Amino acid sequence: MPKKLIFLFAGIVILAGGTALTLKLLGVWPFSSPTNATVQTLDEAANKNQKPSPKNEITIEMDPIFIPIIQKNKVALNLKLEISIVCDKASEQLLNQKLPIIKDAYIQDLFSFIPRKLRKNSKLDKDTLKRRLEIIGNKTIGKGKILSINIINYSEAAKDEISKKSEVIDKDTRESKEETSKD
C-alpha cells in the first residue's frame, strides 16, 4: 500500500511539472506576457506622472558604449551604442558623478540582454532598448533621476574604432600611473 501511494504521488508531481513546463513554453496563462494595451496604459501613466517643464531638462551625452556579441566562443560582432541621458537640473550633478557607474551597469546588463533579444528576433528593437536603458539607469542611481534616454545611434562597430578607443584608455592609464609614481 505505501509503495502505491509513493508512485501515485510521484506521478502527480511529474504530471504537474510537465503541465507547468508546457504552459511556460506555450506562453499560456500564468506565464503569459502582458498585452500591448496593458503596456501602453502603463507607459501613459508613467508619462503623466513625470512631466517636468522643458526648461528644467538637461541632456548629457555619454561616450559610446561598445558591447561584444559572443557566439560560438568568439566575438561575432561589436555593437556600438551612442546615447544621451535627459535629466532635470537637480539631478545633473549626481548624474555627472555617477556616469562611469551608469555606463558600467549598462555594459553589464546589455552584455547578456542583447544576445538574448537577437536570438528571439533578428533585429534589435530601439524602443525596447530605450526602455531597458531607462530602467537600468534609474535602478543604478535612483528612481526618477533619469527622465528619458535618447538613442543617437546603434550600429556595428568597426574593429579599428574599438582598438583606437582601447589605445586611448591604455595611454591615459599609463600617464596617470606615471604621474602617481612621480609624486
What does this structure look like?
The protein has 183 residues and is of the alpha+beta class. It has two domains: 2-31; 36-182, Tetrahydropterin Synthase, Chain A. It is 59% helix and 21% strand. The protein has five helices and four strands. Strands 1, 2, 3 and 4 form a four-stranded antiparallel beta sheet that branches. Strand 2 and strand 3 (74-88) form a beta hairpin. Helix 3 (92-120) packs across helix 4. The longest helix is centred in the middle third of the chain and has 29 residues, at 92-120. The chain is elongated, with a radius of gyration of 23 Å.
Brief overview:
The protein has 183 residues and is of the alpha+beta class. Helix content is 59%, strand content 21%.
Secondary-structure topology with pairs:
Blueprint: H1 2-26, H2 36-49, E1 57-61, E2 65-71, E3 74-88, H3 92-120, H4 126-141, E4 146-156, H5 159-182
